[in-house]
Amino acid sequence: MSDEVIEPGMHHSTAEGEIPTELRSEAQSLKAGSVGVIGVVFLVVTGAAPIAAMLFNGPLAVLGAGWAAPAAFILTLIGLVVFTVGYVQMARRVNAAGGFYTFISHGLGRVLGLAAAGTVMFAYVMFACQQQGVSGYWLSTTFDNWFGVNIPGWILVYVAILITVGISYFEVKITARILGVALCAEVLMLTIFGLIVLFKGGAHGISLAPLNPAKVFSSDNTAKAVFGSAAAGIALFGAYFSWTGFEMAPNYAEESKHPARTVGPATYGSVIGVGILYIFVMWMFVEGWGQQHVSHEIAVQLGTVPNQTLPHAYGSAFYPLTDQFAGHWMTIIFEGLIITSSFAAGIAFYSTASRYVFSMARESILPGFLGKTRPGAQNPWRASLAVGLVMVVYCTLFILSDHSTLAQLTKTSTYGALMGVFALLAIQGICCIAIIWFFWSQARDGFHWWKTVIAPILGCGAMIFGCQQMLANLGALAGGEPLFVRSIPWVSLAIFVFGFCVALYWRSQKKDRYEAIGRFVDVNVEGDLSPESQSGDEPAVASAG
Q1: Model pTM greater than 0.70?
Q2: Torsion-angle region of residue 157: left (phi > 0), alpha (psi -120 to 50) or beta?
Q3: Residue-wise pLDDT tens digits, 368-380
Q4: Nearest Cα to 87, choosing from 519, 514, 428?
Q5: Which of 48, 102, 279, 367 is the most exposed place for a label (fewest CB within 10 A)?
């Protein structure tokens, strides 16, 4: 690996096979400098969608760990922070909209890179698809509570798709502003809710027991009594899915004002910031109902308790608490914010999925016409429309199998989330290995015993454990074991193997396509981000992996 100081006005040099930024046509480049650190944080954190995460993933965590659900979020936060250490180091060296697959292709080679490419793209397309079911469910239940108008959730799923595609057609800067307003309101209201429950002492006083990680793996909480089992895997899935999208920051590096300096703060900020919020809110949710009652209320919400519904037929077990501790005014605000939060998450997932498709298309992995941007705005509109079409097909298939409003949450959304999370956990584990090898073999100047060795090893272990726990609890996670659920790991493996075989074929028969895998990088990246180099406007360093 060589480092070259780039003076203003000079052309960037890069390793053989790399495609430097300035050699791209405008139609193949995303709009540089369109978002700063705050904008990227908004795009990343809205992928997690705090209120949607609490109202959808929170019940899943309770389903698995009962009143110990907050501790599941603590364990997940620790694992993700450790993973982020090595991930950020890699993102500072390899800068492109391809994210994981770009990192893996640089660290472990183009064959594994292409295999990862299809798998990651599949995961984010699944996230974009499942989020439309979430939006449809909350639109339907909220309109019913507000106006007494019962619009079937499946109809509103298509409305959600139309709005998501329409908003994302415009510039990423506009999207960031829209999502930023919704995000600020979500964080504010969740914090206020938590503080009110804390100051009022919950249902029976405030206990620290729900914050004990050991209780996640214990059977002495209410999950087993209510649901018949207590599965740490279910709890960890619910918690992990709440962070999905935290790793999106490198996908916006090409559009960032200072890519190398943006990725680290945006990624750490999103992981730790939302983690603290999640743990606090889930803790107060448990204490608000009381440790002996919270699992029962989640069972009522999920429709597993015969002849029982939540007060006022609410769609979330949060709403009776906002009524009780704050007043109906907060419930109304929560009902409104869950709609904007669901849309925000859908837009963020959709935007990232589109950028994966775009990145692979401009490297000739997918049809080249998908790798063109819209003149002027320079956003990946063709790739976005392609992802939108997939969302329509996916949601239609689930709607045809079960068109009930609840099914849009428990089937359309849950199955897509399971598919995406399993695939992403597996790829993140491989990415950890790629980080270690990249800094050992190609970027020794950036090698560090903790950041590029121990942390990635621990991160890989956390991802493997997450996959194992999901596989052990697939039936409980999906409410049964139909063929679709049993196929989840095999679908991800099939996509990975297909990409692997295609890469081998290209290596022997289509050298130009093979050489392009993961090499469409933005080399205007600073390889040295030591404190000394972060002050002033020093020239950039091109680090070609």
Answers
A1: yes
A2: alpha
A3: 888 887 776 667 8
A4: 428
A5: 367
